[in-house]
Amino acid sequence: MIIATEKFFASRDDNPSVGLLFVVGEETGGDGMAAFAEYASNVTFRAGIFGEPTEGKLATGHKGSLGLTLNATGRSAHSAYPQLGLSAIHYLSQAIVLMNTLEPALPRSDLLGPSTLNIGTIRGGLASNVVAPNATAGVSIRIARSENGSVEAVRDMISGVISPVISEFVAQGGTFDATFSEAFYPAQILDTGIPGLEEAPVFYGTDIPKLPNVEQRYLFGAGTIEVAHTPNEQLSQEELVKGAEAYGLILRHLFPGN
């Protein structure tokens, strides 16, 4: 991005209004972008080029996002006398199974395919010979629809399918909280049409919805998401060079001629 911007300015006789923004916390709540959006709340940006690994293609859209935390509290007991306890793990696992059976019924779109569920974390219990008094799970839902109400529809579907398990657990004296994240958004349809760049959808989420006052939203980057968050995460020199060239192409499209 920096190299592309420097080369772009070097090729111009005028002084286009271009800024570079690098934010923190994109993977853990988007605090950086949220802070900038508040800072620039009175500004409308003509365009924004957002960087994510898109395999060198301009993203046509990306899925929405909704988080869910399941937290169950039961009663501990010796495993030889399970009737004296109330296993939080047992009921949490039932809720997870029910959510997974729901996945084929979640909304889908022609552009982004199916909505998906991922149970990313499970924690709980004290020892193998103790009825588990607590259990928690973290869930990430990727939503394929962009219409208003898409997130709420998915939230209602999940709440409905796990409701019987929660009711049964609570009736036996346990507590079971299903807490959806306050930060969520539906699928995002993005701007495209840059001559010379291929186009394709991506299925992850980004910080784009946290900066609402952008008229044209482009998503592009070098590398592939398929190696992100893995021990083999990497970028080749060729990808870096082509990525810088492509960012320059987008800038020239937004600012044609001197």
Describe the protein in words.
The chain has 258 residues and is an alpha+beta fold. The protein folds into two domains: 2-33 and 44-62 and 188-254, Zn peptidases (Aminopeptidase); 64-180, Alpha-Beta Plaits (2-Layer Sandwich), CATH 3.30.70. Helix content is 28%, strand content 25%. The protein has five helices and eleven strands, in the order ααβββαββββαββββα. The strands form four sheets. Strands 6-7-3-8 form a four-stranded antiparallel sheet, covered by helices on one side. Strands 9-2-10 form a three-stranded mixed sheet, with no helix packed on it. Strands 1-11 form a two-stranded parallel sheet. Helix 1 (2-10) crosses helix 5 and helix 3 runs antiparallel to helix 4 (150-171). The mean pLDDT is 95.
